[in-house]
Design goal:
This protein is mainly β. It is 0% helix and 57% strand. The strands form 2 sheets. Strands 2, 4, 5, 6, 9, 10 and 11 form a 7-stranded mixed sheet that branches. The chain is globular, with a radius of gyration of 14 Å. The termini are far apart.
Length: 117
């Protein structure tokens, strides 16, 4: 019913930049929020950044000042600009779409980000 297509992951050196994109399509009722999560081996999946329908933005403390989340509502697309990347940013990054009204979330397939020292 809803598909999330992610792109932009890759292999970069420390200090480099990447920009992730996530485009949503299908029968979406109403978007409450969209965001990015990441999961490294042996660790819990954690919120990286999110943006609500009203424009409120939340960042994990570990990425504040380095990452920027933005959206294009007309295309139901969310972006994550990642600057000054560190090896500890290495993880699989997942796009999330949170629907209003108690409807289920949707997740992207995940995109690998690897940062070398």
């Amino acid at each position: 019913q809803v598909q999330l297509v992610e792109s932009g992951g890759g292999f970069v050196q420390a200090g480099g930049s990447l920009k992730l994109s996530c485009a949503a399509s299908g029968s979406i009722f109403r978007i409450s929020a969209m965001g990015w999560y990441r999961q490294a081996p042996g660790k819990q999946r954690e919120l990286v950044a999110s943006i609500t329908r009203g424009g409120w933005i939340n960042y994990a403390d570990s990425v504040k000042g380095r990452f920027t989340i933005s959206r294009d509502n007309a295309e139901n697309t969310v972006y994550l600009q990642m600057n000054s990347l560190k090896p500890e940013d290495t993880a699989v990054y997942y796009c999330n779409l949170d629907q209003s009204g108690g409807r289920p979330d949707y997740w992207g397939q995940g995109t690998q980000v690897t940062v070398s020292s």
